[in-house]
Amino acid sequence: MKKKVLLGIAAAAVLVGLVGAVIVYNFGFRQRFEVVSAAKIKVFLGEGETQELQQGNMITWDTINSTDMQQKTIWVKNTGTVDATLKFNYDGQQMPNDWSLNWNYTGDTVAQGTTIPINMTLTLPSTINEGTWECNSWIEATPLS
To answer: Hey, where are the domains in the chain?
Structure first.
């Protein structure tokens, strides 16, 4: 009788185990994640990463009342996943031919997470006409691998 009871208990335990195995099914699979180098920057008008310049916004220079070179400082932060170099350009067709806009960045590597100040210089001819000019400008960040 004890054997039957023990055998019944063992059978019940095996049956519960099988039922549990059927209820809890482990479905395994693999996943793959590809991370690519991404160069990304943020531009700020104020030191200490204040006044972030948003894509498409305008930088307004102070009123120009002389033909002296005009300067404006921006701060560029590398927020990408890799070190990068920068390239600055503007649409010269939108400004008088004898004006030029340059910056003092020399092509050095901008490390990930680093913010660097960049001085933009507007060079004007000895005589200029009154008016308001605007031009499209952009900074290109290129990842270094």
So the answer is: 41-143
